[in-house]
Amino acid sequence: MRLRRRFTKEYLEAGCDEVGRGCLCGPVVAASVILSPKFQAGYITDSKMLSAKKRLEVDQYIREHCLAFAIAEVGVETIDRHNILNASIHAMHLALENLHTQPEFILVDGNRFHPYNFIPHQCIVKGDSKFLSIACASILAKNYRDSLMMRLHEEFPEYGWDRNMGYCTKEHREALMKFGPTVHHRKSFRLDYFPTEEVLANS
Question: Mind telling me which residue stretches traverse the membrane in this protein (predicted)?
């Protein structure tokens, strides 16, 4: 499905997305992308639909050809203190703040957002599969966080973070039961509750 380039015609738009909200450990990461008029979509789509190799190829193209981009992370301390929803929105605000060009309109993946800097915004459920700028943001955020979790895996290899990226897989659950939580785990999450595979598939 071809992604839409714009939500409005008159405003400079920034697409925002986050990754890692449903993980048991590690930071939540957000990215914001403003596309240039000549930006070519190519095979860019929702990051979940691309292989790791394709995401890395697209990542480089986005960075080199968009008008502006920024990536921000919010750590487990903030997640535990303010809850994952607020931490995710805060990460998106930080990404917007770090853009060297200020947008005039914000497109947000999902259905919740706090107003930022008096700039109008629109929340779009599954926006990363509908709008190009959000899809680009999802790719940058995903690649950044995956790379970060690979580095954390070297510190705690027992949990398989190089494969599960901190999500609640069987491997991760078994390691938690055997070794307990690390400093990178979110203490505000139910680390002693492990949903069934059916629940995970529908989450």
Answer: none
Q: Tell me what pLDDT residue 193 has.
A: 55
pLDDT digits (tens, 9 = 90+) for 75-117: 999 999 999 999 999 999 999 999 999 999 999 999 999 999 9
Confirm or reject CATH 2.40.50.730 for domain 13-179, answering yes or no: no
Which amino acid is present at 142? K
CA 140 to CA 131: how far, in whole Å?
A: 15
Residue 192 is assigned to a ligand binding site: no
Whole-number pLDDT of residue 127: 95
DSSP codes of every residue in 170-186: HHHHHHHHHH---TTB-
The DSSP 8-state label assigned to residue 79 in this structure reads H
pLDDT at residue 13, as a whole number: 98
Domain residue ranges in the chain? 13-179
46 is in an annotated binding site: no
Contacts of 157 (CB under 8 A, 6+ apart): none
The closest alpha carbon to 104, from 118, 90, 93, 115, belongs to 118
Say which residues have a Cβ less than 8 Å from residue 153's Cβ, sequence separation at least 6: 159, 160, 161, 162
Positions in the chain whose pLDDT score sits under 70: 1, 193-203
| 18 appears as a binding residue in the annotation | yes
